[in-house]
């Protein structure tokens, strides 16, 4: 093969790859009245998306100081979409929104954005099996995923959290939380209002399985152990994985694989 033909062949391969990525991935930008700035959402579709009718979908929420690119950089989201057949949606949590409706900042209403705008628009735009919608996240996103699951368990088949900041009171002076909640004192009840652990009992009637994990060297480890104890007391359908690891990308790359396997296993029960 001549040099020119080799170059043409390589260029053709590159164009095919680019074409595939354009079709398999979408970048959506939402101008929302509930947020202080536009929210960018990265959507990954399985390679067989066009051949399918309705597919399972998972929202993956990033951690504090991250953005919509974080999960893809950790796991290779397109690879997971192809392997598991999930539509993967990675919204931007605006650095430190904690995925809540802030009582102190009227333009920081992330929960409202998620349920009133993002969720219905994704359902409208993509071939989603509404009975097979999942949500998970890391750190701040782990808190967000479980919080949103607690608020609207009817919308999700299951949820997950890895290295989740599930008890806000005990790190009240960090991660922009105090400002987001109106600078309350540590003893104020508002910390429990917005935390996962004090509200996990609300999943009792939902009777749906969920999974959470935390590395034993993680600074959030004691709070996840506390969440596990509370789930046991309530006899919730909670799977807790305690394993070696710290609050870092190495751990999250391992953890998200375990969570996808958990969700995949649960999909067989939903058929």
What does this structure look like?
- By secondary structure, this protein is an alpha/beta fold.
- The protein has a single domain (25-270), classed as Rossmann fold (3-Layer(aba) Sandwich).
- Helices cover 40% and strands 18% of the residues.
- It has nine helices and eight strands.
- The protein has helices at residues 3-24, 70-75, 77-84, 110-125, 140-151, 177-180, 190-193, 221-234, 249-270; strands spanning 25-30, 39-44, 55-61, 87-90, 128-137, 158-162, 210-215, 238-243.
- Strands 1-2-4-3-5-6-7-8 form an eight-stranded mixed beta sheet, sandwiched between helices.
- A hairpin with an 8-residue loop joins strand 1 (25-30) and strand 2 (39-44).
- The radius of gyration is 19 Å and the shape is globular.
- Mean pLDDT is 92; it is low at 5-22.
Can you tag this structure with a few keywords?
271 residues; 40% helix; Rossmann fold; globular; alpha/beta; 8-stranded mixed β-sheet
Extract low-pLDDT stretches: 5-22
String of helices and strands: HEEEHHEHEHEHHEHEH
CATH class: Alpha Beta
> Over the alpha carbons, how many angstroms does the gyration radius reach?
19 Å
SS-derived structural category: alpha/beta
**What is the CATH topology assignment?**
Rossmann fold
**What is the annotated CATH architecture?**
3-Layer(aba) Sandwich
CATH level 4 superfamily:
Alpha/Beta hydrolase fold, catalytic domain
Q: What percentage of amino acids are in beta strands?
A: 15-25%
Number of strands: 8
Helical coverage, percent range:
25-40%
Question: If strands are numbered along the chain, what order do they take across the biggest sheet?
Answer: 1-2-4-3-5-6-7-8
Coarse morphology: globular
The tally of helices reads 9
Number of domains: 1
Separation of termini? 51 Å
Q: Mean of residue pLDDT? A: 92
Largest sheet: 8 strands, mixed
